[in-house]
Automatic annotation (TrEMBL):
Taxonomic lineage from the root: Bacteria, Pseudomonadati, Bacteroidota, Flavobacteriia, Flavobacteriales
Ranges of residues in domain Succinylglutamate desuccinylase/Aspartoacylase catalytic: 54-234
The keyword Cell cycle appears for this protein: no
InterPro entries reported for this sequence: AstE_AspA_cat, N-alpha-Ac-DABA-like, N-alpha-Ac-DABA_deacetylase
Name of this chain's protein: Succinylglutamate desuccinylase/aspartoacylase family protein
Residue spans crossing the bilayer: 85-103
Amino acid sequence: MPKEIKNKHPQDVLKILGKEILPGTSVELDFEVAKLHTTTPIEVPIIIERSTKPGPVVLFTAGLHGDEINGVEIVRQLIAKKINIPVYGTIICIPVLNIFGFLHKDRDFPDGRDLNRVFPGSKTGSLASRVAHKMMTEVIPAVDYVIDFHTGGSTRFNAAHIRITPDDEQLKSLAEVFNAPFILYSPHLKKTFRSAVQKKGVPILLFEGGKSFFISNSISNSGVNGSKRILDHLGMLNRNKFKLSSPKKPSILIQESKWIRAARSGMFKPAINEGDLIKKGETIGQITDPFGKLHYSIKSTVNGYVINVNESPLIYQGDALFHVSTALAE
């Protein structure tokens, strides 16, 4: 393990969900989130792999929103390819935290709440709030680093990027190691998992890529390769089994961004892709109507990189169509 990496949990026994996890063991715990009306328990598997050698504890999570399948696929690959078996320390994988939403193909919890807006939760609150509380009190205290995987909304395709808070050099350094195409400065939203974890003093990288109900090979590759780079940086990756792909270029650090919105309602066709560099005045899409009367060209109002593209074929005036960088960090 590199000397500069600190392990806050050097103890031989790691305690998660009240269970003691010994060095050199592979354990699957059941995170019980609730019971159905039939009293059948609903449980989320937590896959834990511990080395015999002490080191950091890294948590990979996905599926806070049940419709964000691409993140689930990334964590699944980490497990299936055995990337999650460390040479030092411990790797915890939670592929689907919102198992209710995943089963019902829905973003939210059965109580209608967005799980990612109720952290740190409450022991006596709503169902979503209780799950958040259990996560923050019985899992996160054992963790040194978190990587949380998300996607864009149902019709909005995100270029692969890492979101971090501004002025945090440790997170910036880790994001650069991950080496997604973009790093986006993004302030915390209240009551999010990212905000709650960081308030506990645990560094967290939030990965965004792709869109809901969709699996993209390029997004999956970006997430898996970035995770391998982080584990290698922490001295945890088995280099005898896994090769690291050399970064083609450093991540582009975006300091500020804006949405370009629809000036008309109609049928929409983008003329650019996520990740493209566009120029002010360039035609970036078309809005038409079903009757052949309207043909409106969307012009870019800025120079910048495209972080997100709305792929909905039908849009209303005012809809967000393109998320574009407006300022790059040094």
